[in-house]
Write a structure and sequence with these properties.
single chain; 31% helix; globular
Length: 268
């Protein structure tokens, strides 16, 4: 049986990568491609909706999928815990599933999980994220998710002095996040944890988005139809050892690993 997919935002950068992955994946087929201005009635007849649109449109896509009883995978950035909370009751009432993936990169997910696991041992945590200058939202969905995971792992807010000053970044779940938007970069995040006399920096750098995202896209698609309720993060489907409370041993990291990206952990 072939899973029929309605792909929203299929002409964008991420949407194009998702389309290529689906074309190469057995048992899945893109039956319609929608733009940000398309009539969402075009979702009718799909078995799964995949959203790679823009933040302003994404919430309408999710609601339209839920209303039609169709599960949805959301790769669009900008979905904080507060925004997800707006649609959670709708998903649960409809008995459908909504999967929110802030980042399809395995390395990014692992880096965020490591940062969350380590955050319990450091009073201070800050995030610096950089994306190309065409990215329209900030902070990035990955940075928001990392901050939320850090906060969830701790019993108290992080130490963040002088947050009343704009230069100190935007606080997400008490964690200051600093966003850079510049040419010459694809996606890079640094989680900097600090304590008395030392610091720990977890760095993830995306070099080739198509290669980096493809394994995670496949994992999300292969699990999406089984989901009921709201699931957040690729770590919900893989066992990475830390920071993945929903992970199971029968959902391993794929053998092709995490090409197209570099992860680095440094201490000082």
């Amino acid at each position: 049986m072939t899973t029929r997919i309605a792909l929203v935002g299929g002409t964008g950068k991420l949407g194009g990568i998702i389309h290529e992955v689906i074309d190469e994946l057995d048992g899945f087929e893109v039956v319609t491609v929608l733009g940000s201005r398309s009539d969402l009635a075009e979702l009718d007849g799909a078995d799964l909706v995949v959203d790679a649109s823009v933040p302003a449109v994404s919430i309408d896509v999710v609601r339209a999928a839920i209303e039609r009883g169709i599960n949805v995978v959301v790769g669009t950035s900008g979905w904080s815990a507060e925004r997800i909370a707006l649609v959670r009751p709708l998903v649960e009432a409809a008995g459908t599933g909504a999967v929110f993936i802030p980042n399809f990169s395995l390395g990014s997910v692992i880096g965020s999980a490591i940062a969350a696991a380590a955050a319990r041992f450091f009073p201070s945590a800050e995030i610096v994220e950089a994306h190309r200058d065409t990215k329209i939202d900030s902070p990035s969905g990955t940075a928001v998710r990392t901050a939320e995971l850090i906060a969830a792992a701790r019993q108290s807010p992080v130490d963040a002095p002088h947050v009343d000053q704009r230069a100190r970044g935007q606080q997400v779940a008490s964690v200051p996040v600093h966003s850079l938007r510049r040419p010459g970069v694809i996606a890079k995040q640094e989680a900097v944890l600090s304590g008395p006399g030392e610091s720990l920096t977890i760095v993830h750098d995306t070099i080739d988005p198509a290669a980096a995202y493809a394994p995670g896209i496949r994992i999300a698609l292969q699990n999406a139809l089984e989901v009921r309720g709201v699931v957040v993060g690729l770590e919900s489907f893989i066992d990475i050892g830390v920071g993945s409370p929903r992970a199971t041993a029968d959902r391993p990291v794929p053998e092709d690993g995490a090409p197209g990206q570099v992860a680095q952990v440094t201490s000082a």
